[in-house]
Amino acid sequence: SMPLSPHRRRALWRLPLVAQWLADPLGKLPPLGSEEPLPPEGCVATGTLTNGVTYVVRTNRKPKSRAELRLVVKAGSLVEGEDQLGVAHLVEHLLFCATKKFQRGELVKIIEAAGGSFGADLNAYTAHHETIYSLCVPCHTDGAGSNLLEQAVNVLQEWASAALLTEADIEAEKKIVLEEWREGLGREQRMLDHYYAKAFPGCRHACRQPIGKMDILQACSAKRIRDFYEDHYRPENIGVVAVGDFASNTDVVSLINKFFGGIPQRQYKQQVPSFVLPVPGRAVVVYSDPELYHAAVKLSFCFPNCPTPTPAWFQREVVKEVFLDVLDRRFSVLRQQAGCPFLSASVGAEDLDPTLTAVCFTAACLQGPDAALATLVALATEVERARAHGVTEHEVAVSTSNTRSVGESELVERHDVPSDDHAENFVEYLSRPGIAITSEAVGTKFRLAACDAVTVESFDWLRGLLDLRGAGWICEIRQVAGAPTVEEEQVREVLERELGKWDGAPVPPWSPPAPSAAACLGAHFAEEVVSEAGSAADGGPDESESEEEGEEEEENDESGSDGPPAKRRKRTTRAGQMGRQRR
Description:
Layout: H1 6-23, E1 44-48, E2 54-59, E3 66-73, H2 87-94, H3 106-113, E4 122-127, E5 131-138, H4 148-161, H5 167-183, H6 187-199, H7 214-219, H8 222-232, E6 238-244, H9 249-260, E7 282-289, E8 295-304, H10 311-335, E9 342-353, E10 356-365, H11 369-389, H12 393-412, H13 419-431, H14 440-453, H15 460-465, E11 473-480, H16 488-504, H17 517-532, H18 534-537, E12 554-555, E13 567-568, E14 572-573, E15 577-580
Parallel strand pairs: 2-6, 7-11, 9-14
Antiparallel strand pairs: 1-2, 3-5, 3-6, 4-5, 4-15, 8-10, 8-11, 9-10, 12-13
Helix pairs in contact: 2-5, 4-9, 10-12, 10-14, 11-16, 12-14
């Protein structure tokens, strides 16, 4: 007989696992819809040292003999004083210079001796709420007999409590940050500044971008820079993440206790408040820039959201994913219609802040006021159609089937998740309030069970968010400078006109139009244009220099489905951050 291909062997290996879940999907877990907290991941060690340092440790075999380490400092640019704007990012730079144990240049030697390099294995970034340092090292001893993992944990501890912050290093790094600021005076930074000023006027996030203000930073004294380090790099603000091919979690917890347990506690000089990005009103953000290559229109509907892994939260997440997938498929159909005003459009979720999420409708269009306003009307019409009529049972069945298929793959492939993915998830756990570590298998089981409970009525809470008549939305229009552009007043007039029209003659329910032959032939061209404009059209201004803020959607098997292939949706984020890639 013919030997089985690796793909078929993997498929057969999965069958018993899927069958076991189908027989008893939730077992002794809380029922679907419950707000009861789920049990923690059994293979993860979490805890808090006596001085307040928190840690998360997980043994993971992929990749072999490697460890991913993170130092989480729960202090970013939002906690800077008026005379410290940019200091959080500067301190991040300074920690790579020298500590009490590791003098200037020694960190380079340690990483290179372990076969690593800057950027890939040693990096950091500063965001609004936190500063994250990362190390990737081998788990074994080197040729000289040094334990590389132990040495790496020691490096994290030195960063957290023993930075030197010398006058010479401060002046040298100020010049480097100034050069970074000059290099960053591009499209993303200009759009980001304008976005916050218009969408969240008066908000602390707008005046606390991680790069800071150069006049204030350059004038900031060494004392005030050291004050920031002393005030915020304290045990209760420190978290340690370790994921890798360890002999056991216990050994790594012992290492963390060995190095971090001796950091002395300090008294607070002042209680630092938490800064939350508010739900916007009815914001219109119109900007043009010479570095933009394509025009885009975006409608974002914002709502408070604090991820708390409970059965009910997983159920809401599945409902949201199915709803967004249905609407995304509608735009794929509309793009093939004759006279479609946009080149491409998509629907997704975006985290504007740890506690603020947005449902986003984004479209790339041709340049010019007419094309932009026509695209805005098309997006707004589909928003109103979804709000007024919801979705059909057939659409729900198709999207739910694809969501379930992705969940089943995640369930059987959960042991193949690389260590850096686990580490990033644990960073979110340590730096975000209210998040708990839950077993991936348990979470996926609830997602699969939620797929079976989805009905057309499940989306009522999401439909209620899509209301252009109320508050909580942001309309963005991005245009190429030099050509005729849209004014903010025009945008508001068009929206008010369409709302009045719908009040008199409601938008009809969804009925898929027949695609035109010309539109089908042009679909490939539209995909190429949109892929080039993706950073401007899909995720909004991207402030990161060295860290990916969004995750690409992974396409899965499209056989037997209507419309686009199944997609694994992951959130994108818009929180400002400055990446530090050492060279």
